[in-house]
TrEMBL record:
One of its GO terms (biological process) is positive regulation of cytokine production involved in immune response. It is found in: Cell membrane. It comes from Nannospalax galili (Northern Israeli blind subterranean mole rat). The lineage of its organism: Eukaryota, Metazoa, Chordata, Craniata, Vertebrata. The keyword Transmembrane helix applies. The keyword Transmembrane helix applies. This is Free fatty acid receptor 3.
């Protein structure tokens, strides 16, 4: 099965990869600094889950230059072949890690609001660590099919003859790959999507009965960003798994919708921003330290948090 591309499409791939790298890397690096600081001061389960999601995004971004080299070479793999399955494995693993960790965050948020008394009595940090380990295992175990496919049967075909990386497959390779892709679409996308949708719909309903307007607004932002990632970034790509299984071949448009999946590393920081007001405040403080100044909206947010926490309001910005 040969993957088809329209003339010059490799520059589209290169451009998207480059933009994702330039935007996603600084955003996730800032998120990493914030979450590490929060966990050092006051460890919270949801922050541990979001820290793992940040590490997953950074792993994708750090290996994205390999994809840039591939795209700049006309979608031919000119790097050592050992890097081909490794980059593919990490690329696809981080995509499904996002869906799993977003689901875990939605469950954590729902339980904290729906069952607050029970929630406070549970060892949430230890459970979050266990859940994180399970998420990494599930995603990496499923995506190890990259290695199985690349080294299946006549390895010289994949390594030398076609000159590509995980783009062209023989019939015997597809016989292994397509059922695994279908399972991944169900287990790692559809099931997490259903769970996430249920948790956030229930959360919105509960908060609509008496929460503050600011809190409702933050939850709605969190819901919108999460569903955007599921439906726009991951939906078309996982649909290609279903179509490929039904047709018995990889759809010709699969590589293009895969581009949408890389955008999640830029959208995940939006989820982080709406995850809590404390994250927003600490992000503003980090930006102030980096820029050596402050903005009116960051000062206003800091003031609101101090009033909420019954601290003495102070003027933080020089006039």
């Amino acid at each position: 099965m040969v993957q088809s591309f329209f003339p010059g499409s490799h520059w589209l791939f290169f451009t998207v990869y480059l933009l994702v790298f330039l935007v996603g890397l600084p955003l996730n690096m800032m998120a990493l600094v914030v979450f590490v600081g929060k966990l050092r001061r006051r460890p919270v389960a949801v922050d541990l889950l979001l820290l793992n999601l940040t590490l997953s995004d950074l792993l994708l971004l750090l290996f994205l230059p390999f994809r840039m080299v591939e795209a700049a070479s006309g979608m031919r793999w000119l790097l050592p072949f050992i890097l081909c399955p490794l980059s593919g494995f990490l690329f696809f693993t981080t995509i499904y890690l996002t869906s799993l960790f977003l689901t875990a965050v939605s469950i954590e948020r729902f339980l904290s609001v729906a069952y607050p008394l029970w929630y406070k009595t549970r060892p949430r940090l230890a459970q979050a660590g266990l859940v994180s380990g399970i998420c990494w295992f599930l995603a990496s175990a499923h995506c190890s099919v990259v290695y199985v496919t690349e080294y299946w049967g006549n390895v010289t075909y994949s390594q030398g003859t076609n000159g590509t990386c995980y783009l062209e497959f023989r019939e015997d390779q597809l016989a292994v790959l397509l059922p695994v892709r279908l399972e991944m679409a169900v287990v790692l996308f559809m099931v997490p999507l259903c769970i996430t949708s249920y948790c956030y719909s229930r959360l919105v309903w509960i908060l609509s009965r008496g929460a503050s307007r600011r809190r409702r607004k933050r939850v709605m932002g969190l819901l919108a960003a999460t569903l955007l990632i599921f439906f726009v970034c991951f939906g078309p790509y996982n649909m290609s798994h279903v179509v490929g299984y039904v047709r018995g071949e990889s759809p010709s448009w699969r590589s293009y919708v895969l581009l949408l999946s890389t955008l999640n590393s830029c959208l995940d920081p939006v989820v982080f921003y709406f995850s809590s007001s404390k994250f927003q405040a600490e992000l503003q403080e980090l930006l102030q330290r980096l820029t050596g100044g402050c903005t009116p909206w960051s000062q206003e947010l800091s003031l609101e948090l101090k009033v909420k926490n019954r601290e003495e309001p102070t003027k933080e910005c020089a006039s």
